[in-house]
């Protein structure tokens, strides 16, 4: 069986694309349903991120069994997958909030107000929190925050996933140049 070698960047971009599209689809489904700020959507997003980064690590380790997948490479791969996926999601979020439905930020603020009031905050505290949020809630900052937040969450998920998905190389001497050992003995 012929082994294919693929770079970590290749896998990160391809699986980041899949992850980003899955996250966009998740948001799009809940947007169409009429509940874009659902807690279920958030939980499903975490499950998609864990599944997407885990699948990328598993696939890379399987296709590169001779090379293996050490912990550090698995962690880097998972973080890059999250980064590329978050860029795609941020682009969609910007388009959604800026052009498709500009009033969605107001709906987001209304949803935040309901949740804060349900948590037991007083009206004046809620108003001050929302006034601060309103200053910083723009489509561009929301998208940038998604890139940062999803990449950070992907890093944290990858810290744990890499423990279980790391794989030692089949060839214990993979990457060791045999000529180097002979040069040292001759001198």
Note the topology:
Elements: H1 8-33, H2 39-63, H3 71-100, H4 104-118, H5 123-136, H6 139-165, H7 178-186
Shape category: elongated
Distance between the termini: 39 Å
Structural class: mainly alpha
Oligomer: single chain
Strand content: under 5%
The biggest beta sheet is recorded as:
none
Number of strands: 0
The portion of residues assigned to helices is over 70%
From the alpha-carbon coordinates, what is the Rg to the nearest angstrom? 22 Å
Mean pLDDT: 88
Count of the domains: 1
The secondary-structure element order is HHHHHHH
The DSSP helix count reads 7
Q: Spans of 5+ residues with little confidence (pLDDT < 50)?
A: none
Describe the structure.
The chain has 187 residues and is mainly alpha-helical. It has one domain. It has 7 helices and no strands. Helix 1 (8-33) packs parallel to helix 3. The longest helix is centred in the middle third of the chain and has 30 residues, at 71-100. It is elongated, with a radius of gyration of 22 Å. The protein starts with 7 loop residues before the first helix and ends with a helix. The model has no long low-confidence stretch (mean pLDDT 88).
Features:
0% strand; elongated
């Amino acid at each position: 069986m012929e082994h294919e070698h693929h770079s970590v960047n290749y896998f990160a971009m391809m699986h980041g694309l899949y992850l980003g599209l899955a996250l966009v689809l998740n948001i799009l489904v809940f947007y169409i349903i009429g509940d874009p700020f659902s807690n279920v959507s958030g939980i499903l997003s975490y499950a998609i991120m864990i599944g997407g980064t885990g699948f990328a690590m598993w696939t890379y380790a399987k296709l590169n069994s001779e090379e293996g997948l050490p912990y550090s490479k698995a962690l880097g791969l998972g973080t890059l997958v999250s980064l590329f996926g978050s860029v795609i999601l941020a682009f969609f979020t910007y388009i959604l909030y800026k052009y498709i439905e500009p009033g969605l930020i107001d709906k987001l603020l209304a949803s935040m107000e309901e949740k804060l009031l349900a948590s037991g905050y007083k009206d004046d505290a809620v108003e001050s929190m929302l006034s601060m949020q309103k200053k910083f809630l723009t489509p561009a900052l929301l998208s940038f925050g998604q890139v940062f937040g999803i990449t950070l969450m992907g890093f944290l998920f990858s810290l744990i996933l890499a423990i279980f998905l790391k794989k030692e190389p089949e060839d214990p001497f993979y990457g060791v140049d045999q000529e180097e050992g002979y040069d040292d003995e001759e001198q």
